[in-house]
């Protein structure tokens, strides 16, 4: 119950707009792949072309090695789950799940068996005689998933399926869906603009931007090793600032902040052009040093003045000015007893040079 998907040079244009621009990727059997991007990035258009609801301008779509580019949706053996659930309000849960099976001319006996199995998959075996209006949002979403699974498709497509749920239920359903997908092993393509959701659920993430593939990788690869400044900014939170180039080495650059502080950073571009680069550092990569503490030469040390403190319960964020007009965010866990610092205090910070990533492009969103 799984299928591979190959996209080859997929293009979709509308008058004056290129929605998807020569997109190519391989999605493995049993993989949970997420299309992540801002509005207009092409993620939903790509999903729609895979489903057969939208015809590509050019390119190919292969399912299990078969070219399905121009095959109608009902012949692709694909299940879909939408944000609004798309459940029929006048039908019971049982009838909703049975509907696609009837469309596939499945016998009554087999329908009864598969509906029962699908309800057990989503842990709602006693809800078959209820109507959608009698279910919570999370239950409705699970029924929509059960309906998509009932005819044993090789591929499940999910378009912002948790967008209508509140934050706590959304987080719960992320884990529920991932567990079901892992247990059953079906291939999933999931569309979201929520980067935390993508990091939580995915085996791999395709970051799309203006219809193009910006980066494809595991959640850890995208978070720890973003290939472009856009990905560093879009996935998670990053401090991004400019610094002057003093020396160019094979692995790292020696840089200088406005005001004179020099430091080392990882070289992420093959060519380094111009007198300055953009630097991206995750807020949690910094460590606050005590007055007597020293670090090895692998670590950069910055002195800074606290401009703002924001308390988040399990952690606090400090806005720290480390150079002229260079203010960074530092995220630190709140151990007990918590260290009391306030606006105007001086902090000494350390960060490994490999956690300071450099990019030659500027940030344009």
Our count of domains comes out at 2
For the secondary structure, the number of strands is 20
Structural class: alpha+beta
CATH superfamily of the largest domain, please? Answer: P-loop containing nucleotide triphosphate hydrolases
Spatial order of the strands forming the largest sheet: 6-7-8-3-9-10
Please identify, by name, the CATH architecture of the largest domain: 3-Layer(aba) Sandwich
**CATH class descriptor name of the largest domain:** Alpha Beta
- In percent, how helical is the residue content? 10-25%
Q: Beta-strand percentage?
A: 35-45%
Q: What shape does the CA trace take? A: elongated
- How would a textbook summarize the main sheet? 6 strands, mixed
The helix/strand series, from N terminus to C terminus, equals EEEHEEEHHHEHEHEEHHEEEEEEEEEE
Number of helices: 8
**CATH topology title of the largest domain:** Rossmann fold
The low-pLDDT segments are none
The rounded Rg comes to 25 Å
Structure description:
This protein has 8 helices and 20 strands. The protein has 365 residues and is an alpha+beta fold. The protein folds into 2 domains: 229 residues, P-loop containing nucleotide triphosphate hydrolases (Rossmann fold), CATH 3.40.50; 123 residues, Nucleic acid-binding proteins (OB fold (Dihydrolipoamide Acetyltransferase, E2P), Beta Barrel). The strands form 4 sheets. The chain has a 6-stranded mixed beta sheet with strand order 6-7-8-3-9-10, with helices on both faces. Strands 11-12-13-20-14 form a 5-stranded mixed barrel. β4 and β5 form a beta hairpin. α3 packs across α4. The mean pLDDT is 91.
